[in-house]
Amino acid sequence: MKTINKIIQILVVAIFLPIVFTGCSDDDNEITDPGTETEVPNFILGQESIRVKVGAENKVTVDVKEGGGEYDAFILNANIAKAETVDGVLKVEGVANGQTSLIVSDKYNRYRKVPVSVYTTDKLELSHKTFDLVTVLGNSGTLTASVVLGNGGYEATSNNSAVGVSVNEEGIISMTAISKKAEFTAIVTVKDCTGLSEEIAVTVKASMDPFTNAELETIMLDGTRRYFYNGSKTDSSYYTYLNEVTGEGKQRYGWDYYSYYWYKLEFKGNKDVGTKEDAVFDYYYYRDGSVLTPVTMKIIKNDGVNIWGVFSYINDEQEKLYTGYFCSPI
């Protein structure tokens, strides 16, 4: 009967203990049995909080400085930690990352509540310490790294606003930036819920290559007529396609829509594979504005039926490399 009464008393106390209960003084944390008339010793714990690593091998002993004996203890959230009493010695074992509380009682029905923080590791480990983020000049690129070992609750910051960073609950770190002519660096700092932190040095560099080899291969696999600029298809079936020689003797490919909008790519020389001289891109569309600029142009494929061409130019004011490509019947 005595055991049943004590369990009931513990449960009642756990329910009515304040939500915020962090001190260990007699005034703040002691609940006494009003019917007790005998002089009793103080009930003092040596820890105001307990931090314990997950695992049975990492148990933490509760330091009872003074008390009435017959100690008992339990954890408010058994999914995060558990408590045990062996020969009067109280121990706490971490089960999973998180925060909970330990409730300790003595034979005089006095109780103490101690915050418990459970963690997994003493070291935060990331997949990378340095990163080169290379993008076509003036274009955005994203790299990802990951938390290899940590305690969850991750946050990420960058010391350079030109590099954006985010991290999700799984510890996947995304870093995004737009390259400039001059390379620049940012230090990305990742922290976990326990305050552990690690850094990644991200260097952002610009590439002057308008297309990768893989992108060129993809372009050449498609034999449909099309005209792309700045990553978007510009033509439509109701446009007038251009495949002609100008009065200056230049080859002209592109399209025209009643002279309201147009896409004209002109170059000197034949239609064989190779770099073309004196290439000019003349484009106008209400959504994109107008462009009239010399470009670097190459015919990358000629199969006797169609030709595939690519071109690029740099807008110095914007520090951006623009690209385009087309496929057209010869």
UniProtKB/TrEMBL annotation:
PROSITE patterns: PROKAR_LIPOPROTEIN. Residues 1-25 form the signal peptide. It comes from the Bacteria. Keywords: Signal. This is BIG2 domain-containing protein.
